[in-house]
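Hey L., structure's done. Input below.
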Amino acid sequence: MAAPEQFEIPRDFRALAEKSVEQAKQAFDGFISAAHQAVTTLEGQAESARKGARHVAEKAMNFAEQNVAGSFDLAQRLVRAKDVQEVMKLQADFVQSQMQILAQQAKELGESAGQAAQEAGSPKR
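Output:
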């Protein structure tokens, strides 16, 4: 059997292939770097969202505690009321006050939620 002929790759073709492989490697490295950066950015946004949600939840719990305490305070004053007129006045004052408090609390919660959403959407660098 005859010896197989040796096949030699031309030097220019080899250089072109090496250059193409190097360019592909650089492109892949750039892609991986961008992917890592995107993951890091998303992790930062998720952390901001989590912190913002926790802040809003804590604020809501504080408001709920304040509102319940106010209701118990009203109940104690109602028990000590001398007559029906005083009960009616205490109730009317409480409702008026509570409406103002709830409006303020809703405003603060809305602002906090909006700020948390804005911070969660802002990329961290």
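Residues 27-121 form one domain. The chain has a mean pLDDT of 85.

-- N.
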